Amino acid sequence: MIFFFPSCSSFFLCLSQAPVLDVEKELVQQSERVKSVDLHPKEPILASLYSGTLCIWNYHSQELVKSFKVAESPVRSAKFIPRKQWIVTGADDKFIRVFDYDTMEKIAEFEAHTDFIRSVAVHPTLPYLLSANDDMVIKLWDWEKDLECTQMFKGHAHYVMQVAFSPKDTSTFASASLDGTIKGLESQSSDSEFTLDGHSKGVNCIDYFMRGSKPYLVSGSDDHTAKGSEDGNVHIWDGATYRLEKTLNYGLERVWAFGCMKGSNRVVIAYDKGTIMVKVLSTHSGGSMGIQIEEENKEL
Fold this sequence. Notes:
By secondary structure, the protein is mainly beta. The chain has strands spanning 4-5, 9-16, 20-30, 34-39, 44-49, 53-58, 63-69, 75-81, 86-91, 95-100, 106-111, 117-122, 128-133, 138-142, 148-153, 160-165, 172-177, 182-186, 192-196, 203-211, 214-221, 225-226, 228-229, 233-238, 244-248, 255-260, 266-271, 274-283, 289-295, 298-299. Mean pLDDT is 74; it is low at 1-19, 224-229 and 283-300.
């Protein structure tokens, strides 16, 4: 496998009065279709592939740390639970599975939904898991109650592709759907806090990241933007004003998932043709707001 960074290029787009977002590419890993990515606090990358295999990469050394088969069907979502040393996965066979990170021993396995599981998310402090799937229902699970389902959420009109807890207000989470919308919900209520409609096609992925005390939403869609979507674009949203701050496109086809970690400015993006890690920085430039992208010529 080849790790590469495109040749040097940079541009600046003036938008309005606010801090500047600077996005630097740190890693590119080409592979078969990547369905999910996550960051561990000690900073290896976890990627779950369409084949049903989990791969854990260390981006410092660019080495594969561990790889093992989880299911015969695609594993569409995998997340670390650092305080338990667990990994939780959701697959097309409708099962949620929990593994010990060190030994790879299976801790739990149960049928959680009636259709493909698209996403799992881990609460940052409470013993909660969220799961989303093609039956358009989001479920909340409590692992201190033997992984009992304690809440269900409805409201999307198509498959729910990804869910993510807010790092600033951990009682809320966001969901992305092929109905083209992003919703904000309360974890202990079925009411929707907000609905965003910024993609031209279905939204495949959603996640939060923090810059200082400011939360941002990043979404991806079939329109290839980040946001994140099937169009290959990645959109970066202001998590307070819900204003679109930046759009990225790296030419690796559809965007399927993001991985962000509280306290880190790194974002990992999963595509049809591989995985990219970027670093998001904010600076000030003459009182105007812009986005600057710098890509270094680097080959490993």
